[in-house]
Sequence to fold (839 residues):
Amino acid sequence: MSTDTTAPLRNIKARRTTLENIVRNLKTAPVSAWFGMIVILIYAIFAIFAPWLAPHSENEVIGKAYEHGSSLALLGTDQIGRDLYSRLIYGARNTIGIAVITTLVSFLVGGSLGVLAALKRGWLDQGVSRVVDAFLAIPVLIFALMMLAVVGKSVVNLIIILALLDATRVFRLSRAVALNAVVMDYVESAKLRGEGMGWIVFKEIVPNILPPLITEFGLRFCFVFLTISALSFLGVGVQPPTADWGSMVAENKTLITFGNPAPLYPAAAIALLTVAVNFVVDWFLHKTSGLRDGK
Amino acid sequence: MASDIKRVKGDVLLEIKNLVIDGKSDDEWKPIIRGIDLTLKRGEVLGLIGESGAGKSTLGLAGMGYARPGCRITSGTINFDGIDLVAASEETRRGLWGSRIAYVAQSAAASFNPAHHIIDQTIETAVGHNIMTREKAEADARDLYKRLQLPNPDTIGLRFPHQVSGGQLQRAMTAMAMSCRPDLIIFDEPTTALDVTTQVEVLAAMRNIVEQFNTAAIYITHDLAVVAQMAHRIMVLRYGNLVEEAPTREMLKQPTQEYTKSLWAVRKLQKPETTSDDIILNIDGVDATYGGGTSKVLDNVTVKIPRGTTVAVVGESGSGKSTLARAITGLLPPSKGTISFNGKALPAALANRDRDTLRRIQMIYQSADTALNPRQTVRDIIGRPLEFYLGLKGAANDRRVVQLLENIELNESYIDRYPGEMSGGQKQRISIARALAAEPELIICDEVTSALDQIVQEEILQLLMKLQKETNVTYLFITHDIATVRAISDEIVVMHRGKVVQQGLKSKVLNPPYPAYTELLLSSVPQMDPDWLTGLLAKRSAKV
Fold:
């Protein structure tokens, strides 16, 4: 048959684009999901545009220590007189940024290993799975504390250690969902076509296991975020003078006994973001899992 | 248990009037059943037939007063022995289910709990509804097993579901339904998942027991020949409407509606037999094993496939016919023997075959649902082999995809669709187009029509034959359906337990003298004659 010409044989009518689909889905989103998305958006704006939005810089001392809120410092000052409001904004950038990078790394490592283990089975699957089982037996926070004590406290170390620990959980999930996909005839069909590993993983399997993985991404982000805050609170996470919500709670924690709400602001920021992410994830899960309203 | 006085044959047991059932799809309620009347007398078996989506299962379940999740009964009445099932409370209905109305589902394997003994599940309802004591129920279950001709009726109940065969499990499920001596049983495609040879036994057992206890039954199926054996009366459904209703013999003899006639005509497709001396694929003495050589699934298989013809491989499940396909494609390298393609030996393992060899042998799967990636559009699915094997990109690729879509009698409007946005027959056409895109010489069709409705099956078979005429492609057609084989094959290979029982031209294999297994297989295929089952059973028992 002649294929020399590239002129279209028939005019193909355009269908709904991805953007139109997203808009359609957003229109039916429940209030909780909208709330979550708006909160996340606000956080993201603050994190990205921190230098422009914050009235003062991250480490500028603007007054006396432990001042109450005023026109100069909206939420008061911290233990050495820095503006709490500005540090809260910069904290968004640091804490969320680190958490996002950590979760991304853990998904890259855990996800690809999981899919590969499901596809290859055999010794690779056995080996990685048993190592992961061993890691899962140790509580994350204690293990992270120990590792940070060994390799030293720095943001890079923090990211690597948390990402690797989290990757074990991502591995378990991605392996389980990928196992359901690799037995499908379309994967066999791709193998019979002679496709390489890259195509089979990224074009055949990954698109089909993406919804649970995206959901898990949201949840894991929350856990990582809380773990970083906890580690910072304990003094081994993000180090001063870098603004970080966890360490801000720690630095100002004594104030709570004097009726000063300063430590509550960063704590509330942590809680609100976690709740918001969960709302969005819930909606997404409901949407993609095909759960219908029961009778 | 209902008293014997109430079991007078001829009384109206179930009366459905002007029933409308809506189903929810895409957040919209759409009618599935559009105003159907149904009357069923005691001791009568009513067959409901139609394609998938005709509403036959929904109507059958409505006979129990049950609507599946996502369905609702909008209007109409369902009167079961004086009880209005639509108005009745959930509790009343639940009291009836199991004890007076029973249900036998298509897949017994999915309906049994794998963690409990069969007998415990058989008597669960009878004991649970306080109809019988445990001892009495167990004795009764053993009696039912005997009546259903299950082997070792006294001990079979102590086995777990996975320890008996599919046909036995389906009969055990009938025993479960019978345990309370219900007034009405609903059979929902109970033999669809079974092999023909097993199906005969199950059909005979079910028909027998329904007659013995004078139970009324609704028999749902898409297989006309089966319903002809079972039902006294047949209702043909389509798109939620009643097309035609008549006693079985009358309906078979002279259907009045066009649609019913078209259902009857399906089996008349016949391909003239051709053959060729040019052997495209030569399978010589092939053995294959699973699990490191412990169980032989292919045993010295020798098959020759002439170019440009259709060779059908038939056999029951477990006969090794799908394994043969895996050996040819290289997914399961044979442990012994050679496979040569175009006169050259094929490398045993998939990894050792070059791209051009892979291109020449393509495969079409039974279920297009799992064979097409649900996250790829038709453009990706058909376009990929074009790019991969032939290097077509961009507009040239699109152009060829549209051509292929037209070859399979679809058009360019499908190019951006996902598999989920198409019907079963359309999806199977896309699978065919994907195989064609590679411009292959041999296509292995693994049960390609068995998941489809009869009319769609016919269309797909005709398409395959048209394409063979156009491209002289060779088909290796794996199936358990003798009717399909009769329609499209040139040569037939009969397989049983990993061995080739017989190979030859269609005219030879389908006509006597038969080897014993071929005869058993062929005689088990249900015929449209309502006396077929009775006749067959008489013939077989005379032989023993």
User: Anything to note?
Assistant: Residues 31-288 of chain A form a domain with the MetI-like fold fold (CATH 1.10.3720.10). Residues 291-295 of chain A have pLDDT under 50 and may be disordered.
